[in-house]
Amino acid sequence: xxxxxxxxxxxxxxxxxxxxxxxxxxxxxxxxxxxxxxxxxxxxxxxxxxxxxxxxxxxxxxxxxxxxxxxxxxxxxxxxxxxxxxxxxxxxxxxxxxxxxxxxxxxxxxxxxxxxxxxxxxxxxxxxxxxxxxxxxxxxxxxxxxxxxxxxxxxxxxxxxxxxxxxxxxxxxxxxxxxxxxxxxxxxxxxxxxx
Length: 195
Known about the structure:
Layout lengths: L1 E3 L3 H13 L6 E3 L13 E3 L2 E5 L6 E5 L4 H12 L5 E5 L2 E3 L3 H8 L3 E9 L4 H11 L6 E6 L9 H7 L4 H17 L14
Parallel strand pairs: 1-2, 5-6, 5-8, 8-9
Antiparallel strand pairs: 1-7, 3-4, 4-6
Helix pairs in contact: 2-6
């Protein structure tokens, strides 16, 4: 089982939860450097923290771990364009919570954003879980490409990779607006498995 931490409060909670797991190995991942300000959840659906939600269910933004605050900033920017965004932090990312897949099914577009490598990352795992559950909502996953990256501060590297609130909001707004323009043109990043 694997957890990613968004702030000091969830780090304490997740460490306690990880120590209580007695049926297999557990990993808790947290970023180095300054600890992010506490970002409390509005509510919890199973293990998934709902950080923000709108009456409109246009976009489910899966903001993994320390990207919780970025997710909140993206939601505010996308809302300015008239779209509703639900921001969630799955907390436990492996195995993918069934509740996360259920939330995905209720939205028009799912976007995952993580500071880990995309290949084999949370977005990949979520895409597989969605295909397994026959959830055909388009999924876009943002993260670090599997490549060599120049040395720099976390902020510099994320900016170079287009993983800032401004960049992500621009991408999300573009994807959801294309859905409005031609609903059948935006397809999932991965196709459903063939039987």
